[in-house]
Amino acid sequence: MALVTYREAVARGIAQEMRRDESVVFLGEDVAAAGGVFKTTVGLLDEFGPKRVRDTPISEQAILGATMGAAMAGLRPIAEIMFSDFYAVCWDLVANEMSKSRYMADGQVSFPLVIKSGNGAGLRFGAQHSQDISNWAMAIPGLKVVCPSNPVDMIGLMAAAVRDNDPVLIFEAKGMYAEKAEVPNGEIVDSLGKAKIIREGDDCTIAALGMMVPRAMRAAEILSSRGIEATVVDVRSLVPLDVTTLMAAYSRTGRLFTVEENPRLCGWGAELVSIIVEEGFEYLDGPPVRITTPHLPLPAADNLEDLALPSVERIVSTITEGMKY
Amino acid sequence: MTFTTDPLTNPPTDSLSTADQIDLYRQMVRARQFEKRCYDLFLQNLVKGTTHLYIGQEAIATGVSAAMSEGDYTFVTYRGHAHLLVRGTPMGPILAEMLGRSNGLMSGKGGSMHLIDASRGVLGSYAIIGAQLVIANGAAWAAQYKETGQVTVCFFGDGATNIGAFHEAMNFAVIWNLPIVFVCENNQYMEYTPIRSVTAVDRPAADRAGAYGLDPVVVDGNDVEAVYGTAAAAVHKARTGGGPTLIEALTYRHGGHSRADPGKYRPDEELQAWLAKDPIPNYRSALIGRGVAERDLDLIDAQTRHEVDEATEMAKSGGLPADELLWTNLWSDGSSGWRT
User: Fold this and answer.
1) Dehydrogenase E1 component domain spans which residues (chain B) (predicted)?
2) Sheet containing B217-220: which strands, arranged edge to edge?
3) Which residues of chain A have a CB within 8 Å of the CB of B180?
């Protein structure tokens, strides 16, 4: 075991897969010589050389186009889109091309590629560099969507994504880059499409994703001290969505709260709530409640960004209130 | 009209044997007759959605393809039926795809604008303007990385030169020295609008080449041998590590942009002038002038009519895709589920 930061786990996951498979290559802006603007790819150029770890111009369409074309022609590329907000300038490649081409071709081609991005708030970058856009990706058929919440998951889910033969988008919670955890030595390989129950409690289920997971856990501890025992599920994967695990946790507790970093409308929690109401109505002990960022652009100021995001305090108070029903 | 093709990159084509020349003719005739049949089937409401015909531009796909090798990659636009034909895809499955039949090239799931034949290196027809330029770079990168010697050829229209992806793709291909040939088919119109009225330069691709450190290469896109010669030099350059080439081939679309467009916005004089430059009858005359027997060319015409008729019968005989196909091949394991 060793203490590893969330940021270091990104490079470790990529390196683990590049050592194993020569067809894995990595490209992005400032990722090679500079080691990434968030320092998530430090050491990759030194270990794997400039043929496999490549700096690109500020050309997101060119980056994702090259990624898609290379995947079609036998490589397993990993691309970095520096801030997930920048998907907006290359969304054609994501929403129209790599996600649909296999289906349209009825299976003639496949796209074993990974796109990784710094996602979400916490660093006071303002509205164009702080969005959680994982729900945009979730809305497009043909994309797998992963949001690791800790260093071990980051390594294991990166490995699973690289080994998967479909386009996988990994959203790194950039507010968590400095978080540390004990990580086992040796290879770590996880599975896509698996949520994880990280706390058991009989009174309610809290489903959380990415940077909201540790907040949900802290809220659960506070709620426990007030007599409310929560099951906490780390959703981890939006597509495939692990309905089995989520439904099992919810049906046992009869109550669901979601904690979402995305703005309110069409967040992943809305989909989850609709599923549990449609398929598990008989278990409902109270209205499912979504705890989200308001439907607003994110402001930059410390206090306003904090106010916008679901905080431990807001999670606790919302659940306390919700449990009165 | 003058062409500024660099003779260094446009070698003489006297290396083409008579058989090669006759094959160029055959491929152009196949493309022409195929597209005419598509149009007929459209009028019969058998081809659905929309379709973009290549009539008038056949010399470009034909000449370029003749310069490519087996295993090379092709990327093309939604006006791409002919580009598959010249790479060897049979007519029947293409036509069946347009009819939405189960024996279509993609089981009826793609349609006219999204033809792909990976078995022949055609890694797709792209219906969003410009996308294929950046994607083609990736295939070229894979070939470069694996040192396979494969060349990628990417076709696009004049309209694509005004979208961002064109510029990102050019810069990227040059800085990575990719084995790729970009072929701009300048048919003078971006959809319904004259390209010159919406472009800052006269030659939408060639005049931009210098911005990416590339030579401007303009070729008569209605002269199949000129296209072949220019493409052969570019393909050779790419295959031997010389990096990308940007070719602008001047041509004209005989019909409108798509089936919804009768093309009435084009001055009659202009249309007539270009019809006089129709690549097929002109090449036919040239071949006859070189001593090729007219009856041999007539035979090709007749054989092609037969081929198109057979393909039509094959396409019409296909059943509708099974309902189950709705649910297949989103993911690489053949499934389409979003939940576990």
Assistant:
1) 27-318
2) B122-126, B73-77, B152-157, B180-186, B245-250, B217-220
3) none
Residues 146-185 of B with CB under 8 A from A: 146, 164-165, 168-169, 171-172, 175-176
Range of the domain at B31: 18-312
> Does residue B180 form part of some domain?
yes
Query: Quick check: B1 pLDDT over 70?
Result: no
Does the pLDDT at position A24 exceed 90? yes
Instruction: Give the strand order in the sheet containing A230-234.
Output: A196-199, A230-234, A204-208, A256-263, A289-293
Mutate which of B168, B180, B212, B324 to disrupt the A interface (most A C-beta within 10 Å)?
Answer: B168
Residue B106 forms contact with A (CB below 8 Å): yes
pLDDT digits 0-9 by tens, B123-179: 999 999 999 999 999 999 999 999 999 999 999 999 999 999 999 999 999 999 999
Q: How many domains does chain A have?
A: 2
Q: So what's the pLDDT on residue B237?
A: 98
For residue A69, the chain B residues in CB contact (below 8 A) are: 75, 123, 134-142
Q: Which two tokens stand for residue A111?
A: 């796209």
The sheet with strand A237-239 has its strands ordered as A53-55, A24-28, A76-83, A114-119, A168-173, A144-146, A237-239
- Look at B134 and A101 and tell me if their CB atoms are within 8 Å: no
Does A242 touch chain B if contact means CB atoms closer than 8 Å?
Answer: yes
Residues 130..149 of A with a Cβ closer than 8 Å to B: which?
Answer: 141-142
**Cα–Cα distance, B85 to B101 (Å, whole number):** 19
Return the CATH number at A208: 3.40.50.920
Average pLDDT over residues A85-103: 98
Please identify, among A183, A205, A227, the residue that sits at the C-terminal boundary of a domain. Answer: A183
Answer whether B172 sits within 8 Å of A103, measured CB to CB. no
What ipTM score was computed for the predicted complex, to two decimals?
A: 0.97
Distance between CA atoms of residues A309 and A294, nearest Å: 8
A158, A306: one domain: no
Residues A11 and A149 in one domain: yes
For the question of residue A261 being annotated catalytic, the response is no
Residue B262: predicted pLDDT:
85
What per-residue confidence (pLDDT) applies to B256?
87
Q: Which of residues B316 and B11 earns the better pLDDT score? A: B316
Is there a catalytic annotation at residue A60?
yes
If asked whether residues A166 and A217 sit together in one domain, one would say no
For residues B314-326, average pLDDT? 97
C-alpha distances out from residue B182 to B48, B102, B175, B233, Å = 30, 33, 15, 13
Q: What is the pLDDT of residue B13?
A: 52
CATH number at residue B303: 3.40.50.970
Calculate the average pLDDT of chain B.
94
Structural domain range at position A15: 2-183
pLDDT for the residue numbered B14 = 58
B325 in contact with A at a CB cutoff of 8 Å?
Answer: yes
> In Å, how far is A240's CA from the nearest CA of chain B?
5
| Count of structural domains within chain B | 1
